[in-house]
Kinesin light chain
Amino acid sequence: MECNNEQDPSIDELVEELIEHDSLIGERTGKCNVSGAQGNFTKAKVYYKRMLERQTKESGEDDLSVATTLYQIGTYLTLEGNIDEALEMLERALKLQLETLGEGHDDTALTYQLLGTNFLNHRENEQAEEMFRKALHIKLDILRQIFSNLTGLCRQLMNSLKGQEKYSEAIEIQKLVLENLLQMHGEDHPDVVQTYLGIAGLLGDQARLDDSLHMVDRCVEICSRLQGTEDFHPRILTQVLFHKATCLEAQGDFEGAEGVLAELRLVQKETLSETHPLVAETAEAYDHLAKLYGLKGMLDNAINAYATATNIRKTALGNGHPSTKKSVIALKALKRQKTARALNQEGLVRKAQGDSEGALQPLRRGAGYSQGNLCSHKYGECLREYFG
C-alpha cells in the first residue's frame, strides 16, 4: 500500500498539525485530553503504518527507523487508550532499540516510560514500576553524564578566569556548579566537597583567608559524615586538610598548621599504605612549613618539620629518590644553621663581656657552619662588624 501524496498531507505536515493540537506529541506519557482530535489520531496511525511498511521493505525489519515508527504508532495508540495494541508496538520498538541503541540510550528510556504508562493504565502496577525504574535509571545516568560534562566545562572556564585573576567571576562559576550538585546529590557527596574546596582555593587567592577556612571547615564536616561509606575518598580529605594547613600558615598560625598536618598524617596512616603516592605528597606541606619556621627564626620547629618530610620520603620513595636526597640536604643545612646560630650567640656574649679574642673563635666557626645557608650573609656581616 502506498501513500497518495497528492490527496493526503505529508507525514511532517501531519505531525506539525498534531503538535499544535492539544500538545499531543509532547504529552507522551500520562493520560491526555484527546477530545476533538480523534480524527487526527486515525490519520496519523494510517500514515505511520504506511511508513512502517515502506521502511520494513526498504531497510529490513531490524532497522532503527522501524523502531522509531513503531514507537510513534505506540504513542498514538496510547493516546487513544488502545493499550493492548500500544504494548505490542512498543515492545517491538524496545526490542529493536536494545539491539541497535543499547540499554542506556534516551530513546530506550522513552519507550520504557511509555510502556510503563500503558501498564499503569492497565492496572498492572508491578510491571509499570519495573518499566518506570528502568527509564529513571537511564535518565539519571544520562543526566549525570551531561552534568559531568557541564561541570568539566565550568571548571575549565573557572581556571581560565583564575589565570586572569578574575577570582570573583571564577567563584560565581563554581557556585553555579555547586548549586546543581546540591540539587542532584545533596551536600554529602565527594563532588560537593571538591567544589567547596575549589571555592576555598579561590577565596585564598583573594587573601580572604577567614572565608576560605570557613569553606574548608564545611568540607571537613562532610568528609567526617562520609567516612565509612563508599563515597569517602582519602585523597579528597587529604586535599582538604592540606589546604587548611596552607591557610593557617598564611595567617601565621604555624602551630595550628602543624596540628592539621599531623591530623592529615593520621588519616593517611589509617587509610593508606606508607608507600602510597599521596603520602609522599604530604612531605611538600612539611617542606613549606619548615621554610616558614626558618624565615621566622624558629629553627627547632623547622628542623622537626623537615625531619618529618624526610622520613615520609624515605619510607614512601626510598633513600635513593632525588626528592629524598634533597630533603636530607635541606635537613642537614638547617641543623648547620642551628649550630651556626648557637656559635654566633656564644661569640656575641663573649664580646659583650669584653672577651674579644674568646669571641673570635665561635664567630668564625659559626660563619663556617652557616656557609651556603640562609643565615650566611647575616653572620658574615656580624664578623665584619666586630672584627673588621
Summary: The radius of gyration is 36 Å.
